[in-house]
Amino acid sequence: MTLLNKTLPEHRRGKLKELLSQGHLVRAIEAHNGLSGIIADNARIEGKDGADRQVVREFDAIWESSLTDSASKGHPDIEIISFDSRLHTIHEILAVTKKPMIVDGDTGGDPNMFEYTVSKLERAGVSAVIIEDKVFPKRNSLEAGTTQTLQEPQAFAYKIKRGKAVQMTGDFMIIARLESLIAGLGLDDALMRARLYLEAGADGIMIHSKSKDPSEILEFATRYQSLLAELEMDKPLVCVPTTYNNIVEDELKASGFQIIIYANHLLRSAYKTMLETARTILLNQRSFEADPLCAPLRDIFDAVGFLDVKEKDRLDESNKNTPVIIPAAGRAPDIEKILGDKPKPMLDIAGKTLLSRQIKALNVNRLTDITVVTGYGKEQMQAEGVAFVEAPDYEKNTELDSILAAESKMANGFIMLYSDILVEYSVFSKLLASREDIVLVVDNSIQYLESVEGKATDYVISRNQRNRERRTINFDYQNTIAKIGKKIDPALATHEFIGLAKFTKTGAEQFLETYHDVRQNLRGKIQEAEDISKFRLTDLVQEMIDRGFNVHYLEIHKGWLEIHFPQDIELANELFVARAPDAPQIPTP
């Protein structure tokens, strides 16, 4: 977000005055660190008003609160957090936001200290500071029974003059916060102080109250308008409706308020949810039950700009050679008469081996780091530009064990391709362009085809099934798999996994983490496998899904061919003979 919100201090500083000059009601919400600043900067809702007009509502400014800054650091709001610490938080928020900032300046300290505060805030790009007319060190205004001692009004007015004198621009605002109602001194005292502070150069007045009844606030607003008319001034009025929170913004605006500050709500809501989350984990001795209380990690990644970094990394990686693993250790009993003692990848398809045609499709997409896992007929496995590794005990194990024989190639991500499929060149291109960590290529034509006897199909059920009677927008993030396996009811399946998948570095880490945990800790039936010796790739993928990992899919419609039966070989020969020898188009029947 720092890179996306490149707002210079001189461009940000004057935004608050600009909004006020245009007659806007300025709505501000507190922020106490960079993440809450991002929320304050980006939160918005859209809808229609009573006249059916489109309305967008968002916060116009950010309130950097002394209370929430102190509390987020684990300290009480009594001015014990140093200004340098406060300034660090302010810079942290400014770095990831673009909206104007109003800073809670507490009492401002003595006049000398306040001069430096004004100078540093103005230079940082802050739009306004609000200081309260209490003696240093202040006590928070909202806690009942707390003694509140106000500064002599002439002394506070002098502090305002000193602050205004060191300003370098006309953009920065110093707003005086009246604590007369908090201290129980009444409206007359508040208006007397407002007059003195305005005459001293204050750019606005904030009236504070801890009453749940807004009547005294509204009465002050009425009398304040008369005071401005008498002084021939136009200075904004600010309120903080924390305790009198039943009144809506339109009523406050109609009463003359121009800035409304929601002063502590993000921290308070975060504290409540964090406490509930911690207790839920302790109660259940795991975090599963706490998940509904937590935002998805992807939302956090998106908010702080990690997905942007990931996309840049992906673009950087696109020119690098992603390793490809082709598990080819097993036998092919349905076409053994045609193969003889050769392994399936050495099957002749229109004058070229099945493996060489796969290599060609990979090479066209700049995939040249290819590892073929051998087993049956390994002595006859031949191809240029690939590495061969042998799968141990291939006759007893599954294709997953064959894939793991090339584990050394997985560290930085990999592509897995079954050894018995031909795929259009463009499918590899689309797969490489996908952004997700785990992506399986699936065919949606399974919904319209009958199952083939003798063929074990990898059925898939999408997590977000479409309404076929209604056209919808298909967002990428919706393309996640809910179920995958060979024993799924074909009538429920939405897709078929074709045997092609991509794992980024993160996806590979999740893949290996789950695999090794299953190997070490699980016994008996695992997903569709009767035991660990029958554990297949689809079982591992389903296990990952059940553990909360997102497995996405890339949807295609035909464009691939599995070589399983003799008639598949005949069709493949027809397709490649009828077209150019290296034709990339492979329509399925």
Q: Quickly count the helices.
A: 20
Low-confidence stretches: 467-477
Report the end-to-end length measured between terminal Cα atoms: 49 Å
Strand content: 15-25%
Helix content: 25-40%
Average of pLDDT: 89
Radius of gyration: 34 Å
> Strand pairing plus helix content: what structural class?
alpha/beta
Reported for the largest beta sheet, the result is: 9 strands, mixed
Shape: elongated
Characterization of this structure:
The chain is an alpha/beta fold and 589 residues long. Helix 3 (34-42) crosses helix 5, helix 5 (83-94) packs parallel to helix 6 (111-124) and helix 8 packs parallel to helix 9.
Short structural description:
With 589 residues, this protein is an alpha/beta fold. It is built from 20 helices and 23 strands.
Task: Break the fold down into its secondary structure elements and pairings.
Elements: H1 9-12, H2 15-21, E1 26-31, H3 34-42, E2 44-48, E3 54-58, E4 61-64, H4 66-72, H5 83-94, E5 101-104, H6 111-124, E6 128-132, H7 153-165, E7 173-178, H8 186-199, E8 204-207, H9 215-231, E9 237-239, H10 249-254, E10 259-262, H11 265-284, H12 297-304, H13 306-317, E11 324-328, H14 336-339, E12 348-349, E13 352-353, H15 354-364, E14 370-374, E15 386-390, H16 399-404, E16 414-417, E17 421-423, H17 425-433, E18 438-443, E19 459-462, E20 481-485, E21 495-503, H18 505-521, H19 537-546, E22 552-556, E23 560-562, H20 566-578
Name its key features.
589 residues; alpha/beta; nine-stranded mixed β-sheet; eight-stranded parallel barrel; 36% helix; 18% strand; elongated
